[in-house]
Design goal:
The chain is mostly helical. The chain has helices at 2-47, 50-65, 80-87.
Length: 97
C-alpha cells in the first residue's frame, strides 16, 4: 500500500510540475510575441516616417551627385546599411529614444 501511495504522489507531483512549466512557457511565449509585435510596429512607423525618407534621399543624392565623393570601403555594396555603417552618422530623428 505504501508503494502505491508513493507512486501516486510521484505522479501527482510530476503532473503539477508539468502544468507549472506549461504555464511558464505560455507566459514567456506571450512576452516574446508582444516584444516582436512592438518591434514590428516601430519598424512600420519608421518605414513611413518623413525623416527616414529625407535621410535616404539625401544619402542617395550624396552617392550620385557628390563631386569627388570617396569610394565605398572594401566589401561595401553601397546599400543603406553599408553606407550607414561606413559613415557612422544616423540622424537624430531616426535614432530610437
Amino acid at each position: 500500500m505504501a508503494l502505491v501511495n508513493y507512486w501516486s504522489g510521484v505522479h501527482t507531483a510530476g503532473h503539477a510540475l508539468q502544468t507549472i512549466q506549461e504555464s511558464k512557457l505560455a507566459e514567456f511565449e506571450g512576452a516574446v510575441a508582444n516584444l516582436l509585435k512592438q518591434d514590428r510596429n516601430q519598424l512600420v512607423k519608421l518605414s513611413r516616417s518623413t525623416a527616414l525618407d529625407a535621410y535616404l534621399q539625401t544619402w542617395s543624392q550624396g552617392l550620385t551627385n557628390a563631386p569627388g565623393s570617396r569610394p565605398l570601403p572594401a566589401g561595401a555594396s553601397g546599400d543603406v546599411t553599408d553606407h550607414a555603417a561606413a559613415s557612422g552618422v544616423v540622424p537624430l530623428a531616426l535614432k530610437a529614444g
